[in-house]
Specification:
202 residues, alpha+beta, seven-stranded mixed sheet, 9 strands, globular, binds coenzyme A
Length: 202
């Protein structure tokens, strides 16, 4: 339990959505973000994070708070001079469907825009949510190979059922590359050998 965070912390009231604050994460957010992410990881919905990883990556994160209490968090992780991944996106169970996820995505997209990125992508089980916030489904092979590095330690590595989604920010700059062949082992000019997950058989 995050200190001071009660299950009814998000009380829907007139104007509560407008009191949502979005800001970059700071060090004291690490514990509540870890609690949030790892509670979903325990249910197999997200990849677990450690305090060390969070400390390394804290500059990637933004948070949404209401009256100082953290309701959700998400990260923008760069992969190339033109692309980044939105990842570790999570909203507390009691605060879902109140616009917190959308606020986080919009903040991360605005950040991507400031960095002059051409597109942002995500791997997700909640495709409908991402469709609502401006993403579309893409062939996984169009995404940078490095994006798959985290997958090696995912429990679903041998039966991946996440869907790749993309939001193009600068259509005049973005060209969806030819999908790369799907296979267990791939190479790239910058990585000697990258393993990518096996899609779940349906
Ligand atoms: C996915 C998640 C981040 C969405 O956050 P949220 O705060 O509930 O989303 P919002 O209230 O901002 O919803 C924005 C829109 O998406 C819709 N939406 C939200 N969750 C949805 C879902 N699971 N399925 C379909 N639509 C959904 C909302 O109805 C809303 O639609 P609108 O445009 O008509 O208003 C949240 O449910 C979550 O943390 N899930 C568990 C962790 C997870 O799966 N993270 C994604 C990792 S990639």
């Amino acid at each position: 339990m995050i200190s001071g965070l009660r299950a009814d912390a998000f009380v829907e009231s007139p104007g509560s959505a407008s009191r949502l604050t979005v800001r970059k994460a700071v060090m004291h957010d690490i514990a509540p973000i870890l609690h949030l992410i790892n509670s979903y990881a325990a249910r197999g919905i997200m990849l677990a994070r450690t305090e060390f990883e969070m400390s390394e990556a804290i500059r990637d994160f933004s948070v949404v708070t209401l009256d100082g209490q953290l309701l959700g968090s998400g990260a923008l992780h760069f992969y190339s001079p033109t692309t980044a991944e939105i990842r570790s996106l999570a909203v507390h169970e009691h605060a879902k469907t109140k616009g917190v996820g959308r606020k986080l995505v919009e903040a991360l997209v605005a950040e991507a825009d400031q960095y002059e990125l051409d597109a942002v992508f995500a791997f997700t089980y909640v495709v409908d949510f991402f469709n609502r916030v401006g993403f579309h489904v893409v062939e996984r092979g169009t995404l940078p190979l490095k994006a798959w590095k985290d997958c090696v330690r995912c429990p679903k590595f041998q039966a991946c059922d996440e869907v790749a989604v993309l939001r193009i920010l600068r259509p005049d700059h973005w060209s969806e590359a030819e999908p790369q062949p799907w296979g267990p082992l791939m190479t790239s000019p910058t990585d000697e050998l990258i393993q990518i997950p096996t899609p779940r058989q349906v």
